[in-house]
Structure formats: C-alpha cells, structure tokens
UniProtKB/TrEMBL annotation:
GO cellular component annotations of the record: membrane
InterPro entries: GerAC_N, Spore_GerAC-like, Spore_GerAC-like_C, Spore_GerAC_C_sf
GO BP terms, alphabetized: spore germination
Protein name, UniProt field: Spore germination protein KC
UniProt domain Spore germination GerAC-like C-terminal: residue ranges: 228-392
Domain Spore germination protein N-terminal: 26-200
Membrane topology label: Lipid-anchor
First-listed, main subcellular location of the protein, grouped into a coarse class: membrane
Location within or outside the cell: Membrane
Keyword annotations of the record: Germination, Lipoprotein, Membrane, Palmitate, Signal
UniProt organism field: Paenibacillus endophyticus
Amino acid sequence: MRRVRIWSVAAVYFLCALLLAGCWNRIELNELAITSATSVDRKGEDWLISFQVVIPSSISSGIGITGGGAGAPVNVYSTTGKTIREANARSFFESPRKLYFAHNRVLIVSEETARRGLNPVLDVYLRNTDARETVDVLIAPGSARRILEQMMQISKISGDGIREINHLESKFTSVLPEVKLYQLAMDLASDSGSALLPEVFVAGKSDASSLKVFESTTLPAKIKLGRVAVIKKDKMVGWLSRKESLGVAFLRNDVKNTMLTFACPNEENKYLTLQISDSSTALQPSLDEGKMTVKARIKGKAVLSQSDCSSMDLYKPEIVDELETAAEKDLQRFTNAGWKAAQRLQTDAVGFADMAHRKYRKQWREWKKDWDHYFSTIKLEVSAEITITNVGLSNQPINVNKLREGKK
C-alpha cells in the first residue's frame, strides 16, 4: 500500500513537471538588436521607419581617439511599408537580429508626418506589448532620420543624449515640455484635444554622422532643441516660439524652474537675470452673459543670479520692489504672447477646456460642439506676484577696477 502511494505521488510530480514551460521561448542577448531611438518619416503614402541600434562592442571599447579606432557606437537603418508594423517587420529582411525596444528612449517624428496625422503612431505604440509608451516624443522640422544619424558630444548614444537634453531643459528652464507618448495620447483624448511637443533639429551647415568629427574639439553639426509644435486632434497645426511656449507653460502650471532676463532700469545695454522657482498658477474662470473670462494669477519666488546694474543698491527694499515689478511685467508679456499664439492657431493649447467642463457642466454641452470657436472668444486677465528672496552677497555688480581702487 505504501509503495502504491509513493508511485502515485511520483506520477503527480512527473505530470506537473511536464506542464512547466521551462526556457522553450528564451531569446539570447546576442540575438537582439537593442534600439535606443526610433524615427518616423513619410515617403509618399508609405511609412519610413528608422532605427538607431546600439553596437555593444563599440560601446564597451569607446569611440574616437580614446577608443583606439573602435567603430561607431550605433548603426542607423530604415525600412518602409504601407503601415508602421509592416515597416518594422521588414527589418528581418536585412537585420541579423530581432529589434528590441525595451531600451528605446526617444521617438522622433517628422513635421510632415505630424501634419498628416499621428493616430497611426499612437495606435502602434498603445496596441502592441513590445512598444514603449514611455518614450519621449519630439518633432523634427525636416528628416527625422537625420537626427538619429548625428553624433553627440559627451553622450555616445545620441538617443540617450536627446532624452537627457529634453529632460534637463524641462526641469531647469521649463520652456519646452518633456512629453511621453502616453501623455501625448491623454492630452489629445482630453476635452481640449490638443498637445505640445518639443522641436529637435540639427544646427550647423555640415554633418556629424562620422567618427571623424571627434578629431576636433567642436562638432560641425549639433542636435538642439528649438520651438514647440502644437498638435490639434492628432495633426500638427503650427509652432510656438520659445517666448510663447514659456507663456503657455505658465498658464498650464508646468513651470518648475526658469530664468528671466530683462534690462536694468535706467541703464542701456545692461541686464540682470532672475531664477524663478516655486512657481504656481491659479486660474479663476467667471461667466458673464455667456462669455468666459479667466483670471490667471502667477506666483513665484526668485533669486537674483546675475546683475550688471551699476546704479542700483540691491540692499534697498524699494530697489528690490522695482525689480519684482519689472519681473512681473515680463511674466505678463510672456503669458499674453503665449495666449495670443494659442488663439491665433485656434487650438486650446493651454487646456482651458478641462477647466470649463468642470466648472460649467451645463454650458459645456453646447460649448463642446464648437469649442475652438468659443475658445477664441475667452478673455484672459493675467496678474503676477514675484518675491525676490535673495540678491546674493553683493549689492553692486562685481567690478575689479573698483576692488583695486579700494585697496589704495
């Protein structure tokens, strides 16, 4: 009896072992092509998809002179198809490895693609499990593939470098937004139906796609961030300048840190710079005879980081008050410029639709039928309150000549 029980238990264990998956679907690392960046262009009616693939051997040995003649750290190639997924699948016709997108950092979309519509791009990334919806999305004014081909200073992999530039700019100046793909989808699905995307472009007359550029201390062409693209119902409708973009960022309450530079009072060609932090914007809508007025109140703390104003004693409270007033007027100009640009494009880039929907639910039933038209009739009143908390260790700009005279 005991022997039968032992055999029964052994049979159960054997059957359970048969059900275990094991490593039947394993993929070795040397079978994968790690993709660090992807770009989307249009070629007629076809999709042109480009992949920036990391070369592990070049990354480990370095590049340029320090790498002892190692190859390029990345390889860029393109495929075409009637759909994005078909273009991806055609990579098997020329790549010895399967594309792996878990380390994909950025998605660069050409302006032409954005103006023709982003819905297919969103569909691919949100439908398939192998795509990363956390990639940073940027717009290129010309060829998106060209961005992937450029080498960058400091960063070996330009895909990682572009993401870091976008992240640091958003964190420390807040002029351009850092937009993940899922955030783009959420913005376009919101009541406003609009979104903002940063521009990335190649500055310079030459090309930086060869390792030879590292033989010089300055690259002939550099990857830079520029303006902000305005997306409306999945299509790009125009650009915002950096000044207009900063104003929109204040209205959206997206400013973390930024810099304001303006002229010294009563002095020509001399400027000072304030670093704004702890910024917040409160929006207060009101309705009068069917027309909405929105009061935007901006508050922030500032630190004087540089001053060339020789005629100002920064230790006097009235002088600090004067600087605060000048900063507040500057903020009002930026904000009004961004507001006028959004109305000019007839796009609710500031996201007032969500506020209107929450505040005036009954009226929203009519407004949403033609929100773009109603949005253009909204009146905006901007007020700012800036408090300078620190002017530094000197009440006058540093002047070495005066310092020398003081020693005599």
